[in-house]
Specification:
- The protein is of the alpha/beta class.
- Helices cover about 45% and strands about 15% of the residues.
């Protein structure tokens, strides 16, 4: 799926305590044409004053020592004044999907995931905010949209019986 050049220029931050995983993600994103990708191993950097607002998207590992992905997302949403950076939660444990979405993640990637799924989720998240950090979404609206996407299949299944 080709991405508009505007989206590929968006600053993306990968937060993963595993150097190998974060490094591979960074290389993969560069190969996909994303030219402004940063990588950190300590999510606590996002706790510093508005550093998250420098990015158009954060790919956040859910399981890290100290502050895990949920703690970081809650902190970011708590500091938000209606402006936020979309977060794609990443985990090898599907049991944290609902909690990640409830905490504000715009998408959830279950490890291992494929290149096409990664690119689709990134494209969708960046398209919602216009592709760069200068155009932000309303956090509450974003959380409601995500919760509706997650709960809709469950509701459809419940009423289909």
């Amino acid at each position: 799926m080709p991405n508009p050049p505007d989206v590929r220029l968006a600053p993306i931050l990968i937060v993963d305590d595993c150097h190998d995983t974060g490094g591979v993600l960074r290389v993969l994103l560069n190969q996909l044409g994303y030219s402004n990708v940063s990588f950190v191993t300590d999510g606590k950097i996002l706790l510093k004053a508005d550093i998250a607002l420098r990015y158009g998207l954060i790919l956040l590992d859910m399981h890290m020592p100290g502050w895990d992905g949920l703690d970081i997302m809650r902190h970011l949403r708590g500091k938000s004044s209606g402006q936020c950076v979309p977060v794609i939660a990443i985990s090898g444990d599907d049991r944290c999907r609902a909690a990640a979405i409830a905490a504000g993640a715009v998408a959830f990637l279950l490890k291992p995931f494929g290149q096409e799924e990664l690119e689709a989720r990134i494209h969708d998240a960046l398209s919602m905010v216009g592709g760069h950090a200068g155009r932000r979404m309303n956090c509450q609206l974003n959380a409601n949209v995500c919760l509706n996407k997650v709960s809709q299949p469950a509701n459809e299944a419940r009423y289909a019986q």
